[in-house]
Design brief:
By secondary structure, the chain is of the alpha+beta class. The chain has helices spanning 296-308, 323-332, 352-367, 387-403, 444-455, 491-505, 560-575, and strands at residues 13-15, 18-25, 40-44, 60-69, 73-79, 82-83, 85-90, 93-99, 105-112, 115-124, 144-145, 149-154, 157-169, 172-183, 192-197, 200-205, 214-224, 237-245, 248-257, 262-265, 268-271, 274-275, 278-282, 313-315, 335-339, 373-377, 409-410, 412-413, 428-431, 468-472, 513-516, 522-523, 545-546.
Amino acid sequence: MLRSFTTHVVRPVRSLDGLWDIRPELNGTSRGKAPRSYSRKIEVPSAWESLPDLWDFRGTVWYRKKFMTETQGNLRLVFGGVSHTAKVLLDGKEVGGHYDAFTPWEVVVPQVDAGEHEVVVEVDNRFGDHSALHIPNDYYTYGGITRPVELHEVPDQYIENIFAVPRLYRGKWQLDVRVRVKNIGQDAAFGTLKVRISGQELLLTLPKMESGENGEVSGTLRNLAVKPWCETHPNLYPLQAELWEEGELCDDLIDRVGFREIKVKGKKLYLNGEDLHLRGFNRHESSPIYGCAIPTALMAHDLDLFDDLNCNFLRTCHYPNDQRLLDMCDERGIYVWEESHSRQTPFDPPIFEAQIKQSTLEMVENHYNHPCILMWGSLNECESRTPEGVEMHREVIGYLKSLDHSRPVTYAANKLKEDKCLGFADIVSFNIYTGWYGGGPENIKGFIDDFLSWVDSPESLGGKGKPVIISEFGAGAIPGCRNPQADFWSEEYQVVVLEEALKTYLHHPRICGSAIWQFCDGRVSNEPNPSPDNTFSPMDRPRCMNNKGVVDEYRRPKLSYPVVKALMATAVKKHGKI
Ligand code: ADA
């Protein structure tokens, strides 16, 4: 299932995970028509690159799953993630589709008769004019139904979402809730909602919803007897919403809430009023066996390593993550910077703005209630110097802010003193590779002191006095490449760079967070990207991997692992845990 807990008791929901029929389109014969026969099978969720002969397949694969329904009714198919373009057919009729691998999406089909049905999904992971976000890049775009699939049987009006914002008011926790209900019936609908948490209940009356309309209603539960959520005490509470129509309980939705407030005050971040210090890693969803379809046991293993490394911070570079990982971060008290899908992404494709905004909307609306997400990000290392680049940052960062007023917003910049967009961010974040893409380890301290004094000058056009996160820093180390003179690409050199960087960033008075690039080595595109805004080339990536992990792709520690662990411990000693 998409979450690590039950999200419905009243609504019938089943998993469609398991064995699906597939037919890879090896010579483009289908011309968009579903195949009549299927020759193979694959486990869902998974990446098709797990199949030996599809290890580097970039194209279209048709998926099919048959299922039975006992009664006539509205069917809602929910996909946790399909990489990267999907078209859905139910019983041979096209019923929906989606672009982008990293956010949940749904297809709703009203009034489906009881009986046997087949859902077919055409999945395409090719690059091209249809895809502005998935491009040849320094991470691999896998293919497949890579996250869980659910089949919901929904009434004519059902609860689509609940958005909850915990607030501390005069020392007492309250919860602002906004509930969105969808009416897919033929007639106008009315209804009431019961929202419960921690023994309290709120009754909300829905506005009249005409056929096909959404209805939203808000309210506040006050004086809640709850304990706060934080790294040391990740207390979570189930939030239940029930939809009643003419005295009958017809639908429900269960989510989880952690009571915490994240605030920016001057140069600092505060969690529940306490000075917050973030230390951790950038982590791609990447594995040699599973691709981006990381199983929960490996998610848990990665977070066990975060804990072993004395880290409390994970940046979901460069896209929204699987919600089961976010659920684990909620449960373990790991702080998350989640960002919508972009890395050095060119702005010039006509569909870029629509696609990045959709990725951003789906990220915020689906992940809104995770207490672990402390900040939203987007536009990693995108063009922030030119007038067009400034306009796009203003538009996208502004859009992100408009979707959620309860969290700060940032973007990871690499244009240094040419950046013109720092004024749009609540937190200013910088990818700094002194010691790798320029200068040596001995320059790390001097460079950052000079740069941060620029940030706090009027010349930075808006960075002055804001919290600073060093969102990326690191060095490549090919696993097993050892030499006493610590040459480039050796594990010894990575130790030298990370040691100097962590000693500087973890204890710098002007830096409130730092994230190593990166947690584990990961597969990259085997195709170059010649765009002037994303000059990625696999020629710069030995093994066709990004080798800057502190563990390799199999999570085997490099020489830098114990060094990072010890230095992160000094930060815990100095800043403590909250
Ligand atoms: C950039 C980018 C990362 C990665 C890194 C590197 O900072 O944001 O995705 O590509 O460079 O390894 O060079």
